[in-house]
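User: Hey, quick favor. My workstation is busy. Could you predict this chain's structure for me?
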Amino acid sequence: MGAMLENPHKPRALALMATQIAKSFGDTQVLRNIDLNLAPGEVVALLGPSGCGKTTLLRIAAGLLSASSGKMEIAGKRVVDGSAFNAPPEVRGIGMVFQDYAIWPHLSVLENVAFPLRMRKLPHHDRETRARRALERVGLSHLADRFPGTLSGGQQQRVALARAIVAEPPLVLFDEPLSNLDRELREGLALEIGSLLRELGLSAVYVTHDQSEAFTIADRVAVMLGGEIAQIDTPEQLFAAPASVEVAQFLNIGARIEGRVCHLRGFTCNRDRLNLPNLANSAPEGPARILIPRTAIRPATEGALMAQVLRCQFQGDRYLLHLGLDGEGASLVCPTDHAVALNSHIPLVIDSDRLRVFPQ
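Assistant: No problem, here it is.
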């Protein structure tokens, strides 16, 4: 098939532009004025706990749900305009990969992958050529004539992915596609999906509650909490500079300790067990919490903080210490090269440059 030549100087439309998208079910507001832009070729993960609104937002993008208010465009085409206009899924030109695969057992693998092209009334030869190319890209060309019931879960997921990308859509939506698979297979497929999306230059929104999966696949991760995007950033920046205590807590970046910031004494723990004078000007004076990331501590012969060893986990090439801070209700995870006795107390050295201070 021939392709129309595009003006190289003409900027491409955003793959997705969502503006003030809100959704309520009765008196329950599930989405609160979401703004989300996706550049062409970008992959954004919606990461959050159950009930945070990530799947609702994805379904609005897919056309499976209408928004209560707000606007949305896909590749420059208006698909949502408040509650009055909601373009149906079939005219949006998107690809979708569902949690339950949604592949038809009575069709062969090749026929399943070619189905979106059949719906677009492409000639048979073109459908088969493009479907075989999509299967080759996901490593399943040798299974084209098999039926889904004879495939493993991972192979079925690849079929669903091939079907989603066969028409090279402007946007692919993933609704927790790997949640039914075991962890080892999930990790492998996450790497494959991320590599394939980048190789093809496809734009995608990927919904997951699995942090590792989101960080593996996405260029940016939108942490959703309580129906809002609490922070959207690269995985590295989310860990280096969480926007709030809530984001840090959800990502389990490290321990949070209550205290006060004083411009004379620095940060002082409420129980006077930890004093960090070099944080004197880190925030306005008054109550505050500090975040101690895992990367900011290490065991030592003496240190600024004592912690109790709650668990010593062998990981093959190292040990992972799960540490408790007495009386603070806080916990830390710290790697070490040596086993440490349970319930023993060890000193920790703290890298103050990595600490984050959140005024209350």
